[in-house]
Amino acid sequence: MEMDALTIQHMLYALRDPAGLPFYPWAFFGVGILTFAMHFFAVTILLGGVLVALRHFNSPNPYARQLAYAMANVSKIAVSAAIVLGVAPLLAVQVYYDPLWYTSNVLSAYWVIAFVFILIVAYSLHYVFYHLNYGGSERLKARWSIAWALIGYLLVGFIMHGLSYQTLSPDQWLTWYAPNGQIDNSGTSLHDYSLLRYSFFILLSIPFIGAYMMAYATYWSSRQDKDPAYLQFVFQEGIRWVMVGVPLVTLLLLGYFFSLPEKWQSFLTSPWALLWLVGTILVGLITLRARKHGFQCGYRPIIAAFIGMLAIAIAREMLRYEAIIPYYDFMDYKVSLDLFTTSVFGFTFLVLGISTIGYLLTVTWKAGKTKGIYQASAIMNAWAQFNIGLLIFWTLGYFALMAINSF
Ligand code: HEM
Asked: pTM score, two decimals?
């Protein structure tokens, strides 16, 4: 049972929030792209870290085992970053594509709920591994726990991929909701997915963790008490992961492009497809140059990986735009300009967020660079005091403004 384009268009516009958006749609679109890039960058480090850990667990080389332990810990922290940074694109997409995102979620509601529980179990297993290996040991124990955590993360990623992919085909929704005219409101199916696209996103973690390892080795190389031979091993291993990973994901991407259904073929000749391809190979190109200069250029690949991720995020969103433009254009969303809440959001994000997170990252960076106990400088102390004041000001100001605004 198929709906014609006009009926789909009416359905999607009827599902829109009649209150409109508090600010211009392009702004939500931009925030969605930027935060998806940040979310997925963290996802690649989390998956890549687990892959490196599993690869080198039982290696006869002690440096490889040390790296396995280090990357298992990096991935543990990356999970929390991926979760926190996942919420932001979730909020954005449900603003500018609310009819699409909510319908996709309702069609697979069972999996949306399962997502939360699977993630809790997977992350708990990651901590089981961490606890059993606390402090590092000659041979890492409980490999099963981190392997099952990885399976959980892959499943969670597949659910997200399916939910996202279903938004591209509103012309199929009725068929999924009522196959052969029989309503199926169980929500137990993920109706649409692309294994090539899913594998592309998952295996992007191979080159990206490679770039991360190069940056990791570069970072520690300024510390006199770190073993230079170990750092050299990590750096070389990083190059290897980038060089193996880039051709692999490029092939997967090309496979995905050529598997696109007829209705989306025009995307292939658009500049966005090229942008996606360039975003994918960028880290490889930069690594080819950076590896010759060793630690001097060790941060370049990770910066290239993030810029590449941003390019991929833009192209991915443009594919969705082109796929649904016959029925729906988020750019014509009604705007009920609300400068008050938009300014509160802007201040929270740009002033409070950048200042506090910037402080935490700077202090962590400096502490890691210091042998022994790190003593904060006067400037760092002043920045910390400023942030505390800012938080108090924000909390009081937020409630005061909301109270005033509600009268
Ligand atoms: C920690 C494990 C996670 C993994 C492995 C993962 C992986 C993925 C994957 C594979 C995609 C789809 C890429 C595509 O095909 O376009 C995706 C998209 C997304 N994920 Fe995650 N994710 C994780 C956690 C989360 C969490 C906890 C949230 C939110 C709270 C989240 C929010 C999103 C959003 C909003 C999208 C984009 C949806 C869209 O634009 O349609 N993810 N993620």
From this structure: 0.94
